[in-house]
Design goal:
Blueprint lengths: L29 H24 L5 H21 L3 H8 L2 H14 L1 H4 L22 H10 L10 H19 L21
Helix pairs in contact: 3-6, 3-7, 4-7, 6-7
This protein binds heme C.
Length: 193
């Protein structure tokens, strides 16, 4: 209950009382109001900056970049596919189909839609300048042959797509042999695939 002769900063009580509970009726402190209005202005400005300037990457782009960086790091640390893994990929229709797409949009111009060659080598025959094992093909595609006009695909495609395109080449080249097991493992049954 406010008294008529109160000083300007005295607490003001609202006139009601519920179950004996009374409420102050105070002006909010300035520091509190600045925080509130400041937060509202900051939110609007941040939203506009984020949405309109294009200076900030959306989360999914950052996540994709991090995944890419991790898989490249894994490649550097020796987690690159070996011949056996690449051969296994060539038996997987989904990977081969992805590899075919990559091939048609990036490689067919030089190596031919049927892989029979053109500016680049025939990839269906048993002759290889740089080696015909799955891992040699994978590494050659990654590194390229700058002096001969074969682009460096590593930074463009990344190891997954290069692995798939290698799988596609293996699937199309009947002369590439299934690699011997790299580690001594339990002997497989003699029935072929
Ligand atoms: C601009 C033309 C061009 C494009 C595009 C191109 N290549 Fe090549 N490629 C070449 C040339 C030229 C060579 C031969 C290099 C040499 O003589 O050493 C070659 C060589 C190769 C070899 C090695 C062949 C061997 O005999 O050892 C492979 C494997 C290969 N390319 C795969 C690919 C794949 C996969 C792509 C697509 C991702 C691709 N190339 C895209 C021009 C190209």
């Amino acid at each position: 209950m406010s008294l008529p002769n109160r000083a300007p900063n005295d607490p003001v009580l609202r006139p009601h009382s519920y179950d004996g509970i009374q409420e102050y009726d105070q002006r909010l402190p300035n520091w509190w109001l600045f925080t509130l209005y400041g937060a509202i202005i900051f939110a609007a400005a941040y939203w506009a900056y984020y949405e309109w300037t294009g200076h900030m990457e959306p989360g999914w782009v950052r996540v994709n970049n991090q995944i890419e960086a991790l898989s490249l790091a894994a490649l550097e640390q020796g987690a690159a596919p070996n011949s056996t893994k690449l051969w296994d990929l060539s038996q997987d229709p989904t990977s081969v189909a992805s590899g075919e797409k990559t091939f048609l949009s990036n490689c067919a111009a030089c190596h031919g839609i049927d892989l029979k060659g053109g500016i680049g080598q025939d990839l269906t025959d048993p002759e290889w300048i740089h080696g015909g094992t799955p891992i040699a093909i994978f590494e050659l595609i990654t590194v390229g042959v700058a002096t001969k006009g074969m682009p460096t695909w590593g930074p463009i495609l990344g190891q997954k797509r290069i692995a798939e395109v290698t799988a596609f080449i293996i699937a199309k080249n009947s002369t590439i042999e299934k690699p011997a097991e790299e580690e001594p493992t339990a002997p497989e049954s003699s029935a072929g695939p």
